[in-house]
Amino acid sequence: MDLRKRDILALGMGLAGAALAQPAPAPRARRRSAPVPHRLAKTTPLFRSPPGYPNAIAVAPEGLWIAEQKLSGPSARQYGLPDPADLREAAWLTDWNGKLLKTVWTQSRNTSGMAYGGGFIWMCANQPPEGIFQTDLNGNTISHRQIPLGPPDNGGGCHGAMWHDGKLWIASLRLHGILRVDPASWAPEFLIPVNLPANQSRLHGIAWDQGAIWIVTGNEDSTSFATGKPGLAKYDAATGVLLETVEFVPGSSDPHGLAMHDGVMISCDAGIHPGWPNNDSPTSGFVFRIDFI
Q1: pTM (predicted TM-score)
Q2: Rg (CA), the chain
Q3: I want to staple 271 with a disulfide (CB 3.0 to 4.6 A). Which of 62, 87, 147, 284 is the partner?
Q4: Which domains does the chain have, with CATH numbers?
């Protein structure tokens, strides 16, 4: 090997050694996710619902559907109420001033969610036989099916429902999330898990808002209206990403159902809340609007 070749070889080996001796690059710092936006809301009573416990709402062209909640059996005894003589639960249609336009009687039990779409009322039962009751406007039960992804005879309770673009969305308690279901095949299509801190883990009504879904939240450990901490959470309907959280200012109504009408959120105060004295909220039985502040 001549001198030139030896020099080139030595240079190459030296460069390789220097490269091996270089310290490893420092690991990249983890990107911190931006905090979820948070704001406040207040409530304004609009009108009192028909007599009873209004626990869910849905918008219709004529006005607002309101679902009656009746407590019977163990639920009635839990709240110190007598068993109703008639177990059927009403879906009331009112205008935007609260005038009663129509009453449809359904076979739902302890209703805590409802939707209106496809020409039907969808009532969500929270005690046996549970499930979703599809009812026509003459009070005929078209179908009764359990929330998917559970036992065939008990898909768990439901605290909210809505209809959007031909699909039924259900706030499932057993799944602790918002489930989209095809109403014809009853096939589950998409689940948004609702993972919130313990002080906002109670789920209730849901409403559509331009590609996102609002859900009512609250603290499970409240024992009265004074200790309740209602809130809202907003999720992207396509990805399930949490977009925003909301808390209500003290003294606001106790939200149960939820709907969106002309860009304004509407809710109802049932007057029955787990762990609270009956009608503890000052606006028990009222439909009210929600405004951000």
Answers
A1: 0.88
A2: 27
A3: 284
A4: 35-82+89-292 (2.120.10.30)
